[in-house]
Amino acid sequence: MPLIANIPDNASFTDATVLPLGIQTAASCLFHDSTLALEMPPSQGGMGKTLLIWGASSSVGSCGVQLATIAGYEMFGVASQKNHALVKSLGAKQAFDYNDPNFLDDIVAALEGKSSVGAFDAISQETTLHTICEILHQSGGKKLITGIAPGIESLMKHDVTINNNFGSLGSRAIVD
After folding, report:
1. Measured between alpha carbons, how far is 37 from 71 in angstroms, rounded to an integer?
2. What is the pTM of this model?
3. What is the mean pLDDT for each group of 10 consecutive residues in the chain (176 residues)?
4. Per-residue pLDDT, 157
5. pLDDT at 41
């Protein structure tokens, strides 16, 4: 299946080549039934629900922030401090710096009283996944993480389920 996307006016063709992959990867992590199963835009079904995205300033994470925002979800993004303005400009309500020694407690406090739908880890390393497991375990919301690497399911901690988007990408049989 060909993937296409409009190239922003301020982007070169070379720089924009990653856009369809970022959009497809983020969409498969957010909206497919085998991942977070969020409601797709333009439904606005996410109104009143909060999503955490780790790697919110990465190519895939930034696509995820925009897609989930369009679907009506309140976005919390995790990125370095230097990228907070970018993450907020994409739609994140709050941005948290993973280098801040208090960021885990700050995210848990920010999620208090929210209807959390889980997390999307656009980085999907052991340290990021374990930290998100801890955040979701302490926060009391939905205990589900979707990431972008095969085998991450083995990194589950506490009562949090981790899955990846590889089942959502599917395959198409070629029939003569």
Report:
1. 12
2. 0.86
3. 70 83 90 90 80 96 95 96 98 97 97 94 93 93 86 82 70 33
4. 81
5. 79
* Beta carbons of 53 and 90 less than 8 angstroms apart: no
Please give the Cα distance from 25 to 84 (Å, whole number): 22
Q: What CA–CA distances, in Å, run from 39 to 107, 108, 115, 154?
A: 23, 24, 14, 27
- DSSP codes, 124-138: --HHHHHHHHHHHHH
Residues 6+ apart with CB under 8 A from 122: 26, 29, 53, 54, 55, 56, 58, 60, 61, 64, 147, 148
Q: Which two tokens stand for residue 155?
A: 């990194």
φ, ψ of residue 91 in degrees (nearest 5): 130, -5
Contact of 37 with 31, CB cutoff 8 Å: yes
Residue written as token pair 């979707």: 146
Structure token pair of residue 13: 């063709």
Pick the CATH number of 21-166 from 3.40.50.720, 3.30.420.40, 1.10.260.40, 3.30.70.120: 3.40.50.720
Per the CB < 8 A criterion, the answer to whether 82 and 107 are in contact is no
Q: Is 86 helix (H, G, I), strand (E, B) or coil?
A: helix
pLDDT at 3: 57
What is the C-alpha separation between 133 and 139, in angstroms, rounded? 10
Cα–Cα dist 144/137, whole Å: 10
